[in-house]
Design goal:
Chain A is of the alpha+beta class and 97 residues long. Chain A has helices spanning 14-25, 31-38, 42-54, 77-96; strands spanning 29-30, 58-65, 68-75. Classes of the chains: A alpha+beta (97), B mainly alpha (205).
Amino acid sequence: MINIQSLNKEFESRVRLGIMSILMVREWVEFKELKELLEITDGNLASHAGALEKNDYVEVRKEFVGKKPRTTYNVTRLGRKAFTDHLTQLEKLMRQS
Amino acid sequence: MAAEKYQDDLTAIRSMMERSSRFISLSGLSGVAAGLIALVGGCWALYLLHQQGRDYLTASEMAYSTAFFTQLFITALLILILAIAAAAYFTVRKSKRSGLKIWTSATRQLLVNLFIPLIIGGICCLALFYHGQLQLLAPATLIFYGLALINASKYTFQEIYYLGLLEACLGLISCFLIGYGLIFWIVGFGVLHIIYGILMQRKYR
């Protein structure tokens, strides 16, 4: 039987997995680019990114370029560890089944 | 069922990591096109030299006329412009076909990392030219181009790394075989590009 308890609940959604996998290989990615890569709506991305931020898995930087606000995301050390653990668990589960 | 979902998750994660960090629109055909242009251009330069009655292969120090220099310089410039244009054309075409974005920050990183060694090398080549060290021009372009590819390979296909190594090695060898520079140049920029392009085209079609 697969032990699903060992998986991190915060990464249940595909969108969050997507955000994390992009941030793992990149530094400070813009909201707009994340949105395009994941092909999701503004609201969807904002809420999932917000949830990740609340867990301190990602850090958010808001700044102004001219008059336009720009939001960029980066993974925190905690987030990196949590996601790596999650991946290890996933892979372990795959091997068991 | 759950296992399948996790398998899907893992696949999605891998593809997202790949897609967001690397520039994967680089077309094999662009390598072939650039190689062909370099091949033709290089042979044209050889022909020009022979026409001058000067054997590039054995000659060491000779005075060239300004007009002849201009001819060679224009040839080199044409090769450069045509090769870049062809590479850009096939790459843009490929990414349009596969519905990928071209101008992402992965692209920017690729270009920045490619052009830093290239520009440094270009200026160094101008210095060589200025001091009349023409026999070292071809080796230098090969070496710097190779280093540029190695540097840029982090942001695109891994194969670019090996192409870069080969180019740089060719350049180093030709440093010691002064006089055969143009031949090495044709092999490096022409033949290697074509072989590389065909390999990539077959692998990633």
